[in-house]
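User: Can you predict the 3D structure for this chain?
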Amino acid sequence: MRGGRRMTHPSRQRRATRAALTCTAALLLVTGFSAASGQGVPAPDGSPDDHAHDQHGPSSGHLPGSVENVELLSSIKLTAHEGDISDVSALQTADGRWFAYVGDWAAHCETGGVHVVDFTDPEKPHRAGFLNSPGFGYVTEGVQALHVETSEFSGDLLVISNEWCRTSPNPANMPGGITLWDITEPTDPQLLVQAFGDFDIHGNRANESHSAIAWNTAAGNAYVAAIDNEEVDDVDLYDITDPRNPVLIAETRLPGVHVDGYGQEKTSHDFDVLQFPDGTWHLMVSDWDAGWIDVEVTDPAVPVIVGDFDYAECDQVVPTACPPEGNAHQGEWNSDASVFVGTDEDLSPFRTPITVLDGPLAGQRIDAGEFGWTKPVATFPDGKVNGPTIFGGYGCPGDPVPPVSALGPLGPDEEAIVMFQRGPVNDPNDPRNACFFSDKVRSGEEAGYDVVIVANHHTGAQGGETPAAFFCGGQGSPVLGTAAGLCVGHEFMHEAFGRTPDYTLPYPLGDPGDLEPDFGDLGPRVSAQAEFDGWGYARVVDTSNPAAPTEIAQITIPETDDPAFATGFGDLAVHEVEVPRGDPNEGGPNVDDDLLAYFAWYSGGFRVVDISDPANPAELGHYIDEDGNNFWGVALATDQNGDRIVLASDRDYGLFIFRYTGPLPE
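Assistant: Here is the predicted structure, written as structure tokens:
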């Protein structure tokens, strides 16, 4: 473990502030708030009796409905599109009303934003408005409502991270960074700043941000930590003491931490923040295959790594998976920071290593993954894919794709395989913005390929720190479902096509050393066979010594390690967890503090787990709708009597409101 390392890069404060003022003025023209009766709210209210959403197709597409010790108080339909809803946060107003803030992923691109739902009566929630994302923006992990008291602001804030779904010649249509709303009166929100962030790359717009979290100190300062999707320095820290004029004060790549999950992809994804009993402030960064990194942010301008979680040599639930999948996605401490519950978001129950069959690399086994939304390799006639490879560039919509015939004759048991590169990102030879992984798969499918391999880019390889790192990301656009999709490291992309690996950032203009593969280059024949490694689950970590976080237990559902549930039942991975700890923004102290953990488990439903003995967690209750669920986010609140209720966002439907009805741990 490491302590005392400083890891900040001085921010370009003046430049960023000037850019923010210009960007904010422009973006004010393209944002808006819709009242409950106005445009921007795409679906009518729903209730437990009328929400027939059947989210994963026929009965074979989800787990059977099941309920134990959980009461569904109500639900409200917020979308008519699959995969449209993202995260959820909740906050009580000064006069006692409760409002939920539910992210909209923009399934139809221009519809992104945040749904505002009044659930003061949790049995009768109703829509109270919609905060429109500007242009082609949308909202995913970064949705947080909290009360803030600083020298410059007193009231309630909504913090949103911004991403976008379509390129535009107008930078205002491609929001990045963070947006701050004054939600002191939730039915009349006031925009404080729009799409402020790190302007280093683009100048006229901020880098995209997948998640953000804010905190308010007793000294009257407020801060935000946000993911930077586009730079190796992927944790940005802002001073929002004056939320109308935020300042970027630090950015870091969390250097030197161990990257020991399968895939070696080091990328920050989400946060928890807590003031420890000794008064120091700590930010837990979910850093994917690097696990969870404890960063002291008492002075956010000088963040310091104090704890570095390490995955075991082999997975504790599926012992044949060596190393564990990784994918540290999110998590929360308990009230005194002695225990941390973290979620591994593994959306593919298979790993699919590649074996090179001929050429200079013959016999080498290359670590690789499989996208969870493409045709499974295990469903091919012989349970594997194999064949010749060809390089196809970036494979974005409209790009040319080499014809399958360029591979030459295929054997009777061979598949046609094309490799694209992730991105483009930070590549002056192709200054476009990156397209979705699913765009690349679709390009290969439409050209007739049976397998699409997506290789990581220079940024994903951390500029060469993790050359074999790969990332099988989520689906952002439709695919045909005719091709398998694999992901590999950047190093293999070079070596497979006879090039010396290079990771220079930015990419050298003109490729002077001819180090990048050329469009149409032929590579070796390869073979890939899926190996079951289970779905993502939760890990319990003893953090009583911040410098030595130690995994002490795992939290699973019965289907986690059962190959019979590898396909046909939706995504059976965990996504997010809430650990009640007396947070005043979540209703204050309550009877379940430090005793229970509440999980959004995708199609595994809503889960309640006893963590009173952290080394021996036990499920106490669950809810799976008879038509299936696709739970993403979870948030804590209280009812009119101050009793605990829990909100869960369903990606295909909207918002569910639950009460745990079972006994509390003694």
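The first strand starts at residue 5 and ends at 6. The first helix runs from residue 13 to 27.
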